[in-house]
Design a protein that fits this description.
Length: 332
């Protein structure tokens, strides 16, 4: 694993701080709790900042996270903020733990949680993208906050569901063969990018050759790099920290990738290099044009990822033929 740093490009990243109004409300909760005896559910968990996951499909992915946790016997208290009613903020302190879905360091929020005697889950877990990541993630939560036997049964049930969808499906057989061994580039929020790289290699046989990690704090960078150590002996790749578009584009060409994954804002860069692009990361707004309520996360999310990957690989297949037939300058 090669690792390169670039100066932070403020235009290429998004602010990952919780709103000041949310923190103010939590401080009010702290003030109210000083006057009341709050009974905390020992294994109850608040989900924090789902919009900072890094997935363009974060709304459906967050719903899937809750489904998985509840299936493993983990009690989800509040989801701050997805399908959240402001009047429920007083229930925040009823959970013993907070699971922040971004690995960025949220100093003010963490200080407020400490004052409320509400712990932050510090385990560096991958996001539940794909089969292997989901198993590691859910079994950890089940062991520490739920029921591990329930979690195993839930995972088997989801595996049987996707097996039923793909069994005897010629399109799946053809496409899974086509994608095996393909090279790709990734540019995404740090933990999502690292989790996606592991998923592509382990679940689809796609080699992530260039992994651009967008990180605002050292913690986000360090946790993502740690997650990537799991695959560094299985594939050769270069990690770029907060790369400029110029650097990222050059590394894509040098690595001779078949396609790239990022946000919709990255698409003009990749198309300019004749590299097919798939938008999976970034924010939901002006970036998510799939209106079917289906996740990219979890074992069931493999079906959604397979569909998305099939589209970009079909594009790559015909683009290479077009380049060859018309003597265009190839990206390989």
């Amino acid at each position: 694993m090669n690792k390169c740093h670039s100066e932070l490009d403020s235009e290429s990243i998004q602010c990952s701080k919780l709103s000041s109004n949310t923190v103010k409300m939590l401080k009010q909760v702290q003030h109210d709790n000083q006057r009341e005896n709050i009974i905390q559910a020992q294994n109850s968990v608040n989900l924090i900042a789902p919009h900072l996951i890094g997935s363009k499909n974060w709304t459906n992915d967050t719903d899937e996270i809750i489904r998985l946790l509840q299936g493993a016997g983990v009690q989800v208290n509040l989801n701050l903020c997805r399908n959240f009613d402001l009047k429920d903020i007083d229930e925040f302190a009823e959970a013993k733990f907070n699971y922040v879905l971004s690995s960025e360091k949220l100093r003010t929020f963490e200080k407020t949680c400490s004052d409320l005697n509400s712990e932050i889950i510090r385990e560096n877990l991958p996001l539940p993208v794909g089969i292997a990541n989901t198993e590691e993630w859910l079994l950890w939560f089940a062991k520490n906050h739920g029921n591990i036997e329930l979690a195993k049964e839930f995972l088997v049930k989801d595996q049987k569901f996707i097996q039923k969808q793909l069994r005897f499906n010629y399109n799946f057989s053809w496409m899974s063969t086509l994608m095996y061994g393909k090279r790709c580039g990734i540019l995404a929020n740090a933990k999502f990018g690292a989790s996606l790289a592991r998923c592509l290699l382990w679940d689809f046989g796609i080699v992530p050759k260039v992994i651009g990690l967008i990180a605002e704090t050292d913690r986000a960078e360090e946790e993502a790099v740690e997650l990537l150590k799991e695959i560094e002996n299985q594939a050769e790749f270069t990690v770029l920290i907060n790369p400029s578009y110029f650097d990222y584009g050059n590394y894509l060409k040098k690595a001779e990738v078949d396609f790239s994954i990022g946000s919709i804002q990255d698409k003009p860069l990749c198309i300019g290099h004749k590299i097919p692009h798939l938008s999976l990361s970034g924010f939901n707004f002006f970036n998510q044009y799939n209106f079917i309520p289906w996740p990219s996360f979890g074992i069931r999310g493999v079906l959604g990822l397979m569909t998305e990957l099939s589209i970009v690989l079909e594009e790559a297949f015909y683009l290479k033929n077009m380049i060859s037939s018309n003597n265009y300058e190839s990206f390989k």
